[in-house]
């Protein structure tokens, strides 16, 4: 499922921000929360959408974007709330980091399939935040909540580097 945040989704934007997650599984919502905060900035040439993490839908979604910034929860050997950044065009996204998807293939598999099919966007940046709590619920753990402002700030720097306009707050 794809949900546009704040406005109707239009293809062919300069920058596409994708928040991946499940709003009802605690820390799994970190991508959705970060995407919503980016959407609130009202940046020109930036489209922000939420997505469940289905790999096939991701490939279709980013097809017409110049720069894609994707935010999701990760499973990493790190402290909860730690932030991991991957430039998918430069190197593969570690598959072991993205095993929270309930779909047959998720973010890492979508990136590698898109690479094989030559359907990666010109620039794909993936931010992962190490989760702590995936139990049913609608609140992020304190560690993950504390990481959201930094993820948003780093994503905003990438957005501005891609040529989108607006104020950094």
Q: What structural class results from the helix and strand content?
A: alpha/beta
State the fourth-level CATH superfamily: HybD-like
Shape: globular
Number of helices: 4
List keywords for this structure.
six-stranded mixed sheet, 169 residues, Rossmann fold, alpha/beta, globular
Task: Give a written overview of the molecule.
- With 169 residues, the chain is of the alpha/beta class.
- The protein has one domain: 3-Layer(aba) Sandwich (Rossmann fold).
- The chain is built from four helices and six strands, in the order ββαβαββαβα.
- Strands 1-3-2-4-6-5 form a six-stranded mixed beta sheet, covered by helices on one side.
- The radius of gyration is 14 Å and the shape is globular.
- About 4% of the residues have low confidence.
Topology (SSEs and partners):
Layout: E1 2-4, E2 15-20, H1 30-39, E3 46-51, H2 55-61, E4 67-74, E5 83-87, H3 107-116, E6 123-130, H4 142-161
Parallel strand pairs: 2-3, 2-4, 4-6
Antiparallel strand pairs: 1-3, 5-6
Q: Can you give me a brief rundown of this structure?
A:
With 169 residues, the protein is an alpha/beta fold.
